[in-house]
Write a structure and sequence with these properties.
The structure holds two protein chains of two kinds. By secondary structure, chain A is mainly beta. Chain A contains four helices and 16 strands. Chain A starts with a strand and ends with a helix. In chain B, helix 5 packs parallel to helix 6 and helix 6 runs parallel beside helix 7. Chain B is globular. Classes of the chains: A mainly beta, B alpha/beta.
């Protein structure tokens, strides 16, 4: 797949049938996804603050890979009527950071699927504040936050799903899972549902814990050493994020990042 | 021939003693039927042999091929040739069945198996157990039906080729056709010399695989170790004859529920 570098907010002019995969330059502050278009975006350096406006009937597939030491970043996505957004965020950065995501479902029948996989190790301290606001009827949001926390790292997922009064027939779901490897590592999952409307479907799940003993026994009973079994289970935890990346080279890069940091 | 020898084995779970002095010898190449009422230690015995962390051995020994296996880790026991097909195989999200199988096969080999040879092996095994090949490329047991999970256990057994395979209620959740498939695979492995230690509540599977011995466990001990005719008798009469002929009281599972329901009733009385 051939990627085109996006330096200005001029997707509308660049877009053709063959050109629909773009990497965003880190200096950009705002990107408009034109109506009725179908776009794949890649971000490999987080922005201090980036706002993406997804116009009516558009579909956006956003792949986000962070692998360096960063201070954090902020991403806003505004979703208009009948537009669909899918975000895959692979976080293998190190250091102290707070990453903020604000999703706004502005138009009816808009939807947002958010997937995050974060590896926190070596005294990293990471916080992810992820919020989605439903401002129109029949909107849909699903948030999946997966984390692995080891070597005295600290990982916090705070998820807020807000359905305003009047955004009826909306559905909002949150799912947070953190696997904690050692005694000093800290994993915190804070799912929050703010519902100001009666006619909604909402759910949240949060799990923080160590590797399931039954899973470990199952794998070791087939001859895998405990460390090999743990590695396989952890890979299984983070690997589904690969589905969010189109390029084989990037998939391989993520795999080697996981292996190196495990 | 490697032999599994269990002597005076005592084991507990969460402080409660389940195995209360098991003595048993399993020879390689034998097929043993392991019978007994629920809660009398059959599954516990198999899990203790495999080294499940939930069970604590308090007394006795288990040796395999002359080696004390209780001091070995679970993966070492597996590599010595023991295999346990689980009663409730875990669903492990994200771990791809074939990646897991390949890691398990490689754990036994000095050199990693080539991709070609692995897929040849996997292809044959999936055909043996009549499992769709795509199940091998999915997450381990995730979203599998009960029958698919059990077939996946047999698939793993075929691929790992143990000396003694312990099957914990492999036939529960299987329909008649699937039981036949599993029995055919067991017969095929019996001919190659694999030994079996099989828990089942139904005579159907035993009829198909012809055990050479039947063991009955009551109250955490082996009370009958004899010829397979016992299977038929238990299938027809239940376990009552053990009490009448051998004079062994069969302990009932503790009914903790009673205290709870009395408590609830008492509360209702107070409200009136």
């Amino acid at each position: 797949m051939k990627r085109t570098i996006l330096k200005e907010n001029n997707l509308k002019e660049l877009l053709t049938n063959d050109v629909n995969y773009f990497a965003i330059d880190s200096s950009l502050k705002e990107v408009d996804i034109p109506s009725n278009s179908s776009i794949n975006l890649l971000i490999t350096k987080p922005h201090q603050e980036l706002t993406i406006n997804v116009k009516e009937n558009a579909s956006l597939f956003l792949s986000l890979l962070v692998k360096e030491n960063i201070d954090g970043g902020k991403l806003n996505i505004n979703v208009s009527e009948n537009a669909k957004v899918e975000v895959y965020f692979a976080d293998f950065s190190f250091g102290k950071e707070t990453y903020i995501f604000n999703g706004q479902l502005l138009g009816r029948d808009s939807s947002l699927n958010w997937h995050l996989a974060s590896l926190t190790a070596d005294n990293d301290q990471k916080q992810f504040d992820i919020s989605v606001k439903h401002l129109a009827n029949s909107t849909f949001a699903k948030m999946d936050n997966y984390g692995v926390c080891k070597d005295d790292g600290k990982l916090v997922f705070s998820g807020i799903s807000h359905v305003i009064n009047g955004a009826s027939s909306s559905k909002t779901h949150q799912n947070a899972k953190i696997m904690v490897f050692d005694e000093k590592s800290i994993g915190i999952a804070k799912p929050i549902l703010k519902i100001d409307e009666n006619d909604v479907e909402a759910s949240h799940a949060a799990v923080v814990g160590k590797i399931n003993d039954e899973h470990l026994f199952y794998l070791t009973s087939r001859g895998l050493s405990e460390s090999a079994a743990k590695e396989l289970i952890t890979l299984g935890y983070l690997k589904p994020i690969l589905n969010g990346f189109m390029e084989e080279e990037i998939k391989e890069e993520i795999m080697s990042l996981i292996e190196r940091r495990m | 021939m490697a032999t599994l020898i269990i002597k005076d084995l005592h084991a507990e779970v969460e402080g409660k003693e389940i195995l209360k002095g098991v003595n048993l010898t399993v020879n390689e190449g034998e097929t043993i039927a392991l019978l007994g009422p629920n809660g009398h230690g059959k599954s516990t015995l198999l899990n203790v042999i495999m080294g499940h962390p939930k069970y604590k051995v308090t007394q006795g020994s288990v040796t395999y091929d002359g080696v004390d296996i209780l001091s070995k880790t679970t993966d070492e026991r597996a590599k010595m040739g023991l295999f346990l097909a689980m009663q409730n195989p875990s669903e492990v999200p994200g771990v791809i069945n074939s990646d897991f199988l390949r890691a398990a096969v490689n754990a036994r080999n000095e050199k990693p198996i080539s991709t070609y040879n692995f897929y040849k092996l996997l292809d044959k095994a999936t055909k043996d157990v009549k499992m769709p090949f795509d199940l091998a490329t999915r997450s381990l047991n995730e979203g599998f039906s009960g029958g698919e999970k059990k077939r996946n256990e047999i698939l793993q057994m075929v691929m790992l080729n143990p000396h003694i395979a312990m099957l914990d209620e492999i036939d529960s959740g299987l329909d008649v056709d699937a039981i036949q498939i599993v029995a055919d695979v067991i017969k095929q492995e019996q001919e190659k010399g694999m030994g079996f230690f099989v828990i089942s509540h139904y005579a159907r599977l035993y009829d198909l695989i012809h055990p050479s011995r039947a063991i009955v466990m009551i109250n955490g001990k082996v009370v009958i170790d004899g010829d397979p005719s016992t299977i038929k008798r238990i299938d027809q009469e239940g376990y009552e004859f053990i009490k009448t002929e051998l004079g062994i009281e069969i302990a009932k599972e503790e009914a903790n529920m009673n205290t709870v329901s009395i408590g609830t009733c008492a509360v209702k009385e107070i409200i009136k």
